[in-house]
Amino acid sequence: MVGPAPFVDIGKKAKDLLTKDYNFDQKFTLSMLSSTGMGLTATGLKKDQIFFGDINTVYKSGNTTVDVKVDTYSNVSTKVTVNNAWPCSKAALSFRIPDHKSGKLDVQYLHPRAAIDSSIGLNPTPLLELSATIGSNELYLGGEVGFDTASASFTKYTAGINLNKPDFSAALLLTDKGQALKASYIHSVNPFTSVAAEMAHRFSTYENSFTIGSSHDVDPFTVVRTRFSDNGKVAMLCQREWRPKSLVTFSAEYDSKATNASPKMGLALALKP
Are 94 and 107 in contact (CB under 8 A)? Predict the structure, then answer.
């Protein structure tokens, strides 16, 4: 269905170019998918001298998907998603064990002229969240709001607008309860190169910040990205698809203001046999 994207996707294209796949630790991911609809993903992450890991199992049957994740601390996260529970909708029930207050119900409704997402916590004092966009796939605007029934206060309210064209995308967001304005832009210079920028202004302190970056496809299997922020941090990423759907990613970041600190480097390996 062609229509406006959910509110969470406003500015997502530029954000993905500037942040997606950057990793300054050691990460390993192994994914396997069977013909019966069962999928298994094992992930390991070494951060400093601490190792984190989890095993994620996904089972699909008809319109229903069951996702179960177990991490190294024996926490169990479960999510059950039902597509087309009624026309143009999706519902998801999620919870974590042993946290009995973590239950949450998410419902999404997509229409050619609108997209609505709602979330409610399944506990006596739930957190309520609602977001909506209206318009078309090319131009849409919307907002989101969060309300904590325990404190009877708003946790967030945000508004934004997004413009998509074949060669560029621009977004404007009023965030942090109206205290900050964020603008992002991504432009496809040619089929192989894209550039992006993200700028933010905070009204209370009059602070401005920005990040600019680029992405270049060296060949059909290799992409190189760069980014620079106003805080003096420069980062680079090189990702290679060395076999179908299997990626090796090298990331590096240098903080020009921390002259005594060593550059951060990370390696991520994702295997999909």
Answer: no
CA neighbor of 21 nearest in space, from 232, 226, 196, 261: 226
Q: Which amino acid, residue 107?
A: V
pTM for the whole structure: 0.90
Locate tokens 């709001």: which residue?
Answer: 145
**Tokens 């009059």 identify what position?**
206
Pairing label, strands 264-271, 26-33: parallel
pLDDT at 1: 57
For the chain, count helices (H), then strands (E): 1, 19
Number of other CB atoms surrounding residue 256 within 10 Å:
10
Ramachandran area for residue 170 (φ above 0: left; ψ -120 to 50: alpha; else beta): beta
Query: Who's near 212: CB < 8 A, 6+ residues apart?
Result: 195, 196, 197, 198, 227, 228
Establish whether the linkage from the previous residue to 98 is cis, with ω within 30° of 0: yes
CB 38, CB 31: distance < 8 Å: no
Tens digits of residue pLDDT in 79-109: 999 998 788 899 999 999 888 888 999 999 9
Cβ–Cβ under 8 Å, residues 31 and 22: no
Which distant-in-sequence residues (6+ apart) come within 8 Å of 18 by Cβ?
196, 198, 211, 213, 227
Round to whole Å and give the CA distance between 46 and 61: 34
Residue 246 near residue 271 (C-beta atoms within 8 A): yes
* 166 burial via Cβ count (<10 Å: 0-12, 13-18, 19+): exposed
